Amino acid sequence: MTIRLDGNQTANALMNTLQGQVAALKTAGVVPGLAVILVGDDPASAIYVRNKRRRAAAIGVASTVYTLPATATQAELLAQVAALNADPSVDGILVQLPLPPQIDAAAVIVAIAPDKDVDGFHPVNVGRLWTNTPGIVASTPYGIMALLHAYGIHVAGLHAVIVGRSNIVGRPLAGLLLNHDATVTIAHRQTAGLAALTRTADLLVVATGQANLITADMVKPGAVVVDVGMNRDAAGKLTGDVDYAAVAPKTRAITPVPGGVGPMTIAALMMQTVALAERRANG
Ligand SMILES: NC(=O)C1=CN([C@@H]2O[C@H](COP(=O)(O)OP(=O)(O)OC[C@H]3O[C@@H](n4cnc5c(N)ncnc54)[C@H](OP(=O)(O)O)[C@@H]3O)[C@@H](O)[C@H]2O)C=CC1
Ligand SMILES: Nc1nc(=O)c2c([nH]1)NC[C@@H]1CN(c3ccc(C(=O)N[C@@H](CCC(=O)O)C(=O)O)cc3)C=[N+]21
Ligand SMILES: [Mg+2]
């Protein structure tokens, strides 16, 4: 029997716990504050921003979205980041990626105060991750770890293959899995023999943005499969990077899209925002 790793249900349970933590903070006079900067109109970012607002409102996190036009300049964006760094009511700052081509994303990320970098993208937090010291961790990888944990799936000793090496998913997930004693391989477009490699995975995580990249012949029977991809099919329906119908029966456990990693990303973001507010409340 295949286990469906239900991100909606798991995220809801985590949000209930967070709601209580936020209520306790409020009696201590602290409202967790999340600032989101959105430049232009990337479709995956639009879904993320909409769902984040809803989830934040439901638990009492004050979230503000600063929308800048796709033509915004680097200087405008840096000025916005500086204002939020200086604002004591803001616990977490998140700049939606990707940014338009005229903006140097790395320069914007280093401008965020590392202890407000709720996405964990600042080099200081990336360094903490790769030295296995406490810090803020990227939400999607953190959400994936929380989902596996909720279902009692232990990664120690597993061969984890991650397809995709982005700074927001593949690389930070590799660090977290390594910190939890998995053996980790990262694949990308230049990887030779992708299918032979993915067939060696006990845990296969796919984050490419290529619909149906992973077919049934590429998956080891009994593997755990995590699908991060968000694609629109011809009918406008959201689909992942895995051919779910064909792959799911072969697996021990698999995430659906939607309802898998997406809601867990938001839950992870809220957990870290609340943790930062708790740090502020405790001085
Ligand atoms: N559910 C969620 O919470 C989230 C979902 N997403 C979704 O996940 C997907 C990935 O996002 P992101 O990491 O930002 O994407 P990027 O586009 O930044 O990175 C994609 C990665 O996939 C690799 N790749 C692409 N095609 C292939 C292929 N045919 N074979 C092997 N590797 C391939 C690329 O390789 P190379 O480096 O060689 O180019 C690259 O490393 C997207 O669909 C995005 O919308 C993203 C973040 C959160
Ligand atoms: N700085 C930054 N950090 C990110 O973490 C980041 C980003 N930029 N840019 C865009 C991508 C994409 N991303 C998503 C998160 C949740 C859903 C999500 O809620 N998904 C629901 C969608 C349901 C629906 O509303 O249709 C689901 O999968 O069930 C989607 C996409 C985070 N990203
Ligand atoms: Mg999902």
Automatic annotation (TrEMBL):
Pathway it works in: One-carbon metabolism; tetrahydrofolate interconversion
GO cellular component, one term: cytosol
Pfam family, one: THF_DHG_CYH
Swiss-Prot/TrEMBL catalytic activity: (6R)-5,10-methylene-5,6,7,8-tetrahydrofolate + NADP(+) = (6R)-5,10-methenyltetrahydrofolate + NADPH; (6R)-5,10-methenyltetrahydrofolate + H2O = (6R)-10-formyltetrahydrofolate + H(+)
GO terms for biological process, alphabetical: L-histidine biosynthetic process; methionine biosynthetic process; purine nucleotide biosynthetic process; tetrahydrofolate interconversion
This enzyme's EC code(s): 1.5.1.5, 3.5.4.9
Domain Tetrahydrofolate dehydrogenase/cyclohydrolase catalytic, residue spans: 5-119
Limits of the Tetrahydrofolate dehydrogenase/cyclohydrolase NAD(P)-binding domain: 139-280
Positions contributing to NADP(+) binding: G164, R165, S166
GO molecular function: methenyltetrahydrofolate cyclohydrolase activity; methylenetetrahydrofolate dehydrogenase (NADP+) activity
Entries under SUPFAM superfamilies matching the protein: Aminoacid dehydrogenase-like, N-terminal domain, NAD(P)-binding Rossmann-fold domains
Keywords (A to Z) from UniProt: Amino-acid biosynthesis, Histidine biosynthesis, Hydrolase, Methionine biosynthesis, Multifunctional enzyme, NADP, One-carbon metabolism, Oxidoreductase, Purine biosynthesis
Gene3D superfamilies: Leucine Dehydrogenase, chain A, domain 1, NAD(P)-binding Rossmann-like Domain
Assembly, per entry: Homodimer.
Job of this protein: Catalyzes the oxidation of 5,10-methylenetetrahydrofolate to 5,10-methenyltetrahydrofolate and then the hydrolysis of 5,10-methenyltetrahydrofolate to 10-formyltetrahydrofolate.
Similarity comment: family membership: Belongs to the tetrahydrofolate dehydrogenase/cyclohydrolase family.
Record protein name field: Bifunctional protein FolD
Source organism of this protein record: Lacticaseibacillus nasuensis JCM 17158
Gene name of the record: folD
